[in-house]
């Protein structure tokens, strides 16, 4: 069984569209994260939820909205997509008490045309 | 603010030779330091961490890292590199009261046969 899974794996879309990326973990963790990795492989945290509560909210455009329906899921919705949103988006999870040992999903490669 | 610097974009070594990947950090208070590895088209995997205690930390796949407080460094080492160690390596840091990890820009390691 995959520990942290993301769908879709690839997402190609036009500028201005709205899209969502889903993330699920079956590790029993209480904390989940979204990271963005740009074309230069630079990795930056975007959001983190603990028990469905937002605990990290970095400076990202408000076009990005995370939603956590339960502890095992953290989805990322992006409105009005722009060219600069093209990147690989990684979901990760951990226990809050062990938040340094994060388990990453395989990533979603988003390409905005 | 916390930050990590990985001064080398690329490290190339021959199989069987020692491998070192450099990392320096900046953080308020005591540092919590980490190394993650990313294989091609995969999410990051946790390698090792330093929280407190011995300055030499041992991790997965034969890797170790040495914490040096005076030099604010946390270099990753492996005595004898394998071709399968070829990957992108990220150093990360957080302060003891922080929730988020700050990642370095990554170092691409290529081990040639």
Main sheet: strands, sense, barrel of chain B: 6 strands, mixed
Radius of gyration of chain B: 13 Å
- Number of DSSP helices of chain A? 0
What form of chain A results from the Cα inertia axes? Answer: globular
Number of strands of chain A: 11
Bin the strand percentage of chain B: over 45%
| First-to-last CA distance of chain B | 41 Å
Nearest-integer average pLDDT of chain B: 93
Question: Beta-sheet strand percentage of chain A?
Answer: over 45%
Which range best describes the helical content of chain A: under 10%, 10-25%, 25-40%, 40-55%, 55-70% or over 70%? under 10%
Regions of chain A with pLDDT < 50 over 5+ consecutive residues?
A: none
Helix content of chain B: under 10%
- Got a strand count of chain B? 12
Number of helices of chain B: 0
Radius of gyration of chain A: 13 Å
How far is the N terminus from the C terminus of chain A? 34 Å
Average per-residue pLDDT of chain A, rounded, comes to 91
Description:
The complex is a heterodimer of chains A (113) and B (113). In chain A, strand 4 (31-37) and strand 5 (43-50) form a beta hairpin. Chain A contains no helices and eleven strands. The radius of gyration of chain A is 13 Å and the shape is globular. Chain A has 113 residues and is mostly beta strands. The termini of chain A are far apart. In chain A, the strands form two sheets. In chain A, strands 2, 4, 5, 6, 9, 10 and 11 form a seven-stranded mixed β-sheet that branches. A four-stranded antiparallel β-sheet of chain A has the order 1-3-8-7, with no helix packed on it. Chain A has strands at 4-7, 10-13, 19-25, 31-37, 43-50, 53-57, 64-70, 73-78, 87-94, 103-104, 108-112. With 113 residues, chain B is an all-beta fold. Chain B has no helices and twelve strands. Chain B has strands at 3-5, 10-14, 19-21, 24-26, 31-38, 44-50, 56-58, 64-68, 73-78, 87-95, 102-103, 107-112. In chain B, strands 2, 5, 6, 10, 11 and 12 form a six-stranded mixed β-sheet that branches. In chain B, 38% of the residues are buried. The model of chain B has no long low-confidence stretch (mean pLDDT 93). Classes of the chains: A mainly beta (113), B mainly beta (113).
């Amino acid at each position: 069984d995959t520990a942290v899974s993301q769908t879709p794996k690839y997402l190609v879309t036009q500028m201005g569209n709205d899209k969502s990326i889903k993330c699920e973990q079956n590790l029993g963790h209480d904390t989940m994260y979204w990271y963005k990795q740009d074309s230069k492989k630079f990795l930056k945290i975007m959001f983190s939820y603990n028990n469905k509560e937002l605990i990290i909210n970095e400076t990202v455009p408000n076009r990005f909205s995370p939603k956590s329906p339960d502890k095992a899921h953290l989805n990322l919705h992006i409105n009005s997509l722009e060219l600069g949103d093209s990147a690989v988006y990684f979901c990760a999870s951990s226990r809050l008490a062990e938040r340094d040992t994060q388990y990453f999903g395989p990533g979603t490669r988003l390409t905005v045309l | 603010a916390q930050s990590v610097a990985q001064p080398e974009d690329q490290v190339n070594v021959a199989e069987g030779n020692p491998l070192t990947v450099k990392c320096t950090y900046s953080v308020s208070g005591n540092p919590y330091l980490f190394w993650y590895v990313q294989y091609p088209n995969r999410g990051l995997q946790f390698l090792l961490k330093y929280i407190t205690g011995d300055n030499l930390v041992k991790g997965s796949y034969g890797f170790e890292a040495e914490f040096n407080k005076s030099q604010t460094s946390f270099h990753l080492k492996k005595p004898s590199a394998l071709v399968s160690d070829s990957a992108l390596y990220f150093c990360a840091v957080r302060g003891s009261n922080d929730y988020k990890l700050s990642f370095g820009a990554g170092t691409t390691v290529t081990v040639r046969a």
